């Protein structure tokens, strides 16, 4: 029995190993589809306003009629957002670029025909500031990540979308970087809240450390498949986030200067990589010490820290710097679009002439690609405000209220599916049905938690 489990575990690890990723063009196409379907859904909602009965401050819970309306809206959100994304990431993967082009054309046509009937009559600058789009962006990051962490274990999910072994980039490679950027843009540092005591620092970091050890212990105890080349033997995603949080708290930098410091950190780290560190990180060489055992996770902290600092600077300057007069939505939107294009150009240049994109090392090219992809998503999401003033959806509010809880539930459900189903032998139809049930369950639980006012928060 143990031999069978170990063999099955080895097959699953090999299934996600030695991959080279997809093209930057396909990543750009996928990064267009996700926010585009969100924009179309928001436009279809028209000018519906949020009901006070769904707000947490309301003591009286809605009745049966309110619940039926809430749940039906949640189902429509699922069918118009989650289902199309799931289809593009599985069955329609070969038509991703065509789908992206179609959605761009559709949004362009709708923009031309609807702008005259929208709130633009009152002027663009009377629309909410760009902060309103950040919640949509953060929910999109969590939602796509939750879909991919299970889908990657099935053959219906293209191998080029999975994480690349050394160089190259699949859409899943952008997950950890997107989490870092999403956190940095709205962090306490970006809001220039520097007076944070050590006990609060420990309280805010301890859940990540706890989750890191919990994942390590749980995966070891059930002999769950873990790709060592991703972070190392013991390291994982939660330890990386915790390390960044501790570094940022210890070395306090004013958000005005975070961008410059971040660029210097990345430039220094890239120089170190090009001087020979990259060969060590992509090799199979591991000694007995803890750093060597987890070399990918430990050394990539420098890259993620530089990424975080740049994200803090961008968040401060775009969303939270109240000293800038005349900060209007139209100006912010233009800045976001310019940044998206600039980051993409830098990523292409660095990938071609300095070092190929590598999530495993978190090199300069990878950081610029993460920013390019994330700001592309944000820039497309800003289009929602040009027609519909109301920007909240039930699904969006549900995930936004329990972002960490939703991600943890997704990890638990992924583990349950992998331990109970032979994902490698599942037919495309079986795999898609499992993914449908999984994603619908995740959205339903998040919706019910939001409806009942339940919020998962450790600090």
UniProtKB/TrEMBL annotation:
Its main location: membrane. GO terms for molecular function: glucosaminyl-phosphatidylinositol O-acyltransferase activity. Pfam families: GWT1. It comes from the Eukaryota. Keywords: Membrane, Transmembrane, Transmembrane helix. It is found in: Membrane. GO terms for cellular component: endoplasmic reticulum; membrane. It is a multi-pass membrane protein. The chain crosses the membrane at residues 20-40, 67-86, 92-113, 134-152, 164-186, 198-218, 233-251, 258-277, 297-320, 332-354, 366-387, 399-419, 431-454. GO terms for biological process: GPI anchor biosynthetic process; protein localization to plasma membrane. The keyword Transmembrane helix applies. This is GPI-anchored wall transfer protein. It comes from Oryza brachyantha.
